Amino acid sequence: LRNAWHLVLQGVHPSTIVRGYRMAEIEAMTHLESIAFEGNEDNLVTAVRSSLAGKASRGVQTRLADLAMEAARCVERTVDGTHEVDPTRVSKVIAVGRPATDSEIVEGLVLQKRRAHPEMIRLVENDTIALLDGALERRNMRGDVTFQATSPDVLEALRRREISRLLEDVEAVAAAGVKVLAVSGAIDEEAHRRLLDLEIQAFRRVPSNDLDLLALATGATVLHHVDALRADSCGTVVESRSHLIGDLHHWTVRGEGTAATLIARGSGDEIAEETSRCFDDALGVAAHLRKDRRLLVGGGASHVHLARHLRRVAEATPGREQLAIEAFADALEVIPRALAENAGLDPIDALLDVTAAQAEADDGGARIGLHLDKREPTDLGEAGVLEPLSVIKPTVSGATEAACAVLRIDDVLWARLEAQIPDDIQAQLDAMGEQDA
Questions:
Q1: Reduced to 3 states, what is the DSSP secondary structure of residue 385?
Q2: Distance between CA atoms of 367 and 305, rounded to whole angstroms?
């Protein structure tokens, strides 16, 4: 967008710049696909690890990259012949007390929950589960009701009736063949004992979002009252296990659906939380790679190569659109410039060195970029600096769309939004106004 402002000052109409940017975008998408390559499993893990550069130690990066790919495989589904990976099916549990490299992926859902009664069965396999977004308690009277008891027997009869209604709800759960029950509310003490007698494993105060994850994993329907419980609203658990992770009680559920859980470890709370956040970044990249395995060389190599290609395209493009394509190419070089500057190198010299090295390469130099450790142009493909094509393409197209949207704004509106105009451009506009005056 800044480059477009310079063109506007030179007298190039915004519509012409938009046409040139669109031409450059189409050419960029085609060229990126031409220099991309299909990655094998090792390449995919390497690309995920590259996304964690600077966020953790090498050992933690390697471990989280492996776990992210494992989690993506666990939640991968094939829908209408296409691979789909939903990162929201991966939950996380924080476990403090061990190194971050001991983090692990568990197939299924792991929730920090204990059984409603300590004597309930610990393990249920290949059985039925029901999910209730509500409580299993004595029912309260609806509305404002006032009554007068004439004797203690009346109150006792009312209490027995409340318990009777509660036990009827428990019997309804058992009648549906349920062996695992999860509710978002409380479970009454009377219900505890009856569930224990019926050998039903029950968990209370399960958050609603966890109920939704359980529904995806087991195929059950989240109900709001026991009265709506039917056989077709129940799900299936391959395994439902209550166990300890460290000193905390956890509940692990594996169903017929796809789900996974990260056990994020760390020597302290902050380290474990940081491990969890880094895993989120790695999982996002892994999800893209499970759907599209094509990779590009990172480290600014692909951006420099694309900029060189667009300049050649601009030379063969008649009209003022040529200027817009060149401005588009200049914008792409911001990435290698920023990398060089962050590494303490001169961005201009580093960019010139990479451009020259690519031009001298026999294969076009699409894999040559700035190696920040060696501080010189290197084949970054061999160095393991890779990034997904499915991440780079939306970045380029999104930036183009944003720039074109701003360029379509009326000139008068631009003049009023001076705060959004770069300072150097605004100074030139003011100078032009003074000359006209």
A1: coil
A2: 9
CATH of the domain at 383: 1.10.560.10
Strand partners, 79: 82
Domain co-membership, 117 together with 228:
yes
d(CA 263, CA 108): 12
Q: Is the same domain home to 305 and 285?
A: no
Comparing C-alpha atoms, which of 394, 393, 396, 354 is closest to residue 376? 354
CA distance 345 to 341: 5
Q: Quick: pLDDT tens for 25-82.
A: 999 999 999 999 998 889 899 999 988 887 888 899 999 999 999 999 888 887 777 7
Element holding 261 (H helix, E strand): strand 260-266
- C-alpha closest to that of 252 among 86, 106, 88, 70: 106
- Looking up residue 241, the CATH number of its domain turns out to be 3.50.7.10
CATH number at 78 reads 3.30.260.10
Provide the number of structural domains found in the chain: 3
* Residue range(s) defining the domain that contains residue 70: 41-107+262-292
Q: Are strands 260-266 and 201-203 parallel, antiparallel or unpaired?
A: unpaired
- 116 shares its domain with 248: yes
pTM above 0.90, yes or no: no
Distance CA(314)–CA(23), nearest Å, equals 10
User: Do 345 and 236 fall within a single domain?
Assistant: no
Please report the sign of the dihedral spanned by the C-alpha atoms of residue 77, residue 201, residue 136, residue 184. negative
CA distances from 278 to 97, 257, 275 (A): 18, 26, 5
Question: Which residues have C-beta within 8 Å of that of residue 301, sequence separation ≥ 6?
Answer: 354, 358, 365, 366, 367, 368, 369, 370, 380, 385
